[in-house]
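Tokens as discussed.
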């Protein structure tokens, strides 16, 4: 089922499958901003990554001396969420632990994903609740929205660039089979701008960086005035990804893939989040269309 949020400036659609965004439409300029999931390139649009970001080594992790298996980016993106609240400009979806999830992820949880629009701004929040009265909850969560690039007919991918809010020294971690490898590579910026080219990705996969100074990255064109401001705060990791196709993903992460030397101990996983019993935490990001 699709839930629609709409105001005078924008229209947003969300599916209960994965609580995944389906459309981010700017009514002022009549532009669809969200990648539409072309199956031959990348069939997803904006999956939510939970309870892990990226891969665990050998798709296996260990908790309390027992081995469990999880696919890349976890299982939330492939589950049906329940719509628990909605208005014309907001909606909240919930996924809860079940016998099926406990088998592969031995924790009780409630994951709420909250979407709201305000003028030409889309706000996204993740609220994680630990319902257990005894057991700590270990998890990671991340966003993976893909944006059409180019946004405007007649332009091309290489006409676009990412502009960082503050000066950055990008040092990407090179991936090895989806895991963090030992090698890094500098990514050059010019006046805080990263021109988009297919060569940035390709065999090297995503640009994975940590410790950004910026709390905003803007997608802009050299040929037109259309783009978006992507706002995030207090995320230790950020991913930028594309395939040979007209989109780019901007991904704030509370977690990251294992490295090639990982022991598999889930409690010691890099950037794993730990939530005390009967407590909750919330993370958010937003985007402004122009």
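Sequence:
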């Amino acid at each position: 089922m699709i839930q629609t949020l709409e105001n005078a400036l924008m229209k947003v659609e969300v599916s209960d499958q994965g609580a995944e965004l389906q459309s981010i439409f700017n009514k002022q300029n009549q532009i669809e901003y969200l990648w539409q999931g072309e199956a031959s390139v990348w069939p997803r649009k904006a999956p939510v990554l939970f309870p892990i970001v990226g891969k665990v080594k050998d798709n296996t992790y260990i908790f309390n001396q027992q081995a469990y298996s999880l696919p890349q980016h976890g299982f939330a993106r492939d589950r049906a969420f329940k719509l628990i609240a909605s208005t014309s400009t907001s909606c909240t979806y919930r996924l809860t632990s079940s016998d099926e999830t406990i088998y592969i992820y031995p924790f009780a949880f409630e994951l709420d994903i909250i979407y709201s629009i305000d003028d030409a701004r889309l706000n996204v929040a993740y609220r994680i609740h630990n319902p257990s009265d005894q057991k700590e909850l270990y998890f990671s969560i991340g966003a993976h929205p893909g944006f059409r690039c180019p946004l405007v007919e007649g332009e091309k991918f290489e006409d676009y660039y990412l502009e960082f809010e503050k000066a950055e020294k990008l040092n990407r971690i090179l991936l090895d089979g989806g895991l963090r490898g030992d090698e890094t590579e500098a990514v050059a910026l010019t006046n805080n701008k990263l021109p988009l080219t297919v060569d940035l990705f390709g065999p090297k996969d995503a640009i994975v960086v940590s410790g950004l100074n910026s709390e905003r990255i803007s997608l802009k064109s050299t040929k037109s005035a259309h783009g978006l401001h992507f706002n995030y705060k207090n995320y230790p990791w950020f991913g930028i990804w594309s395939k040979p196709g007209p989109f780019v993903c901007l991904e704030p992460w509370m977690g990251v893939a294992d490295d090639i030397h990982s022991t598999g101990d889930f409690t010691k996983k890099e950037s794993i989040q730990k939530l005390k019993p009967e407590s909750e935490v919330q993370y958010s990001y937003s985007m402004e269309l122009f």
